[in-house]
Amino acid sequence: MSTMFPRIGRRRALQGAAAGFVAFGLLLWWLLPLGKAPPSGTITFSTGTRAGVYQEYGVLLRKALAKSMPNLKVKLLTSAGSQENVARVDNGTADFTIAAADAVETYELLHPESTQRLRGVARLYDDYLQLAVPKDSDIRSVADLRGKRVAIGLPRSGVRLIADRVLRAAGIDPEKDIIPSADGIDVGPERLGHEIDAFFWSGGLPTKGLKRVAETSGLRFVPIKAELVAKLHYQHGPTAYYRATNMPASAYPKVQMGSTVPTMAVSNLLMTRKDMDPRLTEWVTRTVLKSRDGIGAHVHSAQLVDVRTAIYTDPLALHEGARRYYRSVKP
Question: pLDDT at residue 67 above 90?
Answer without folding.
Answer: yes
